[in-house]
Design brief:
Elements lengths: L23 E12 L2 H8 L8 H19 L8 E11 L3 E12 L4 H19 L7 E11 L6 E2 L9
Antiparallel strand pairs: 1-3, 1-4, 2-3, 4-5
Helix pairs in contact: 2-3
Length: 164
């Protein structure tokens, strides 16, 4: 079992020392799913939600969240973000799929930034649509790919949610 790097010898939380690491290009991709009524999803896609253009607002919220990740997750390092994309896709009649891709050239990865970005994009969709439908379901939210760094490439093998 590997040693937990966010704890000192006394078991106290610390920010990992990355000063000795080399900067490398790192990319992380996270995904989220939002299940809703067919009518609600159609209203989103037709930009017919009373609060406005749901996908544009959710995209901006997700990008902003990526940049704020170290303020939200206590032990995350502040990173210079090179690029963020938030993409949306209608899956079937009742699923909105959201994917957040984050890229940096840094000493540590951007997995938490990608997960934060997709999470906030999902929550923003809910916020903008709750007047139309309160029982919207969010999840799963998960990391599906990361590249760069000492641990190399990770690709999520389980793709069962993509067919929902």
């Amino acid at each position: 079992m590997s040693e937990l790097t966010h704890l000192n010898k006394k078991g106290e939380a610390i920010m990992v020392d990355v000063s000795g690491k080399e900067k490398t290009v790192r990319v992380a991709v996270a995904e989220g799913f939002i299940k809703m009524k067919k009518e609600t999803l159609n209203k989103i896609m037709e930009q017919n939600i009373p609060k406005g253009d749901v996908l544009s607002v959710a995209r901006i919220a997700g990008i902003m969240a990526v940049k704020k990740t170290p303020e939200l997750i206590p032990l995350c390092h502040p990173l210079l973000i090179d690029a963020v994309t938030i993409d949306f896709e209608k899956k079937g009649d009742d699923i909105l799929y959201i994917q957040c891709t984050v890229k940096t050239t840094e000493k540590t990865g951007v997995e938490m930034e990608a997960l934060t970005g997709v999470s906030i994009a999902c929550l923003t969709v809910y916020d903008m649509c709750k007047a139309v439908q309160k029982d919207i379901e969010i999840g799963p939210i998960r990391l599906i790919k990361k590249t760069g760094g000492k641990s190399g490439t990770f690709v999520k093998e389980d793709k069962d949610y993509e067919s929902r």
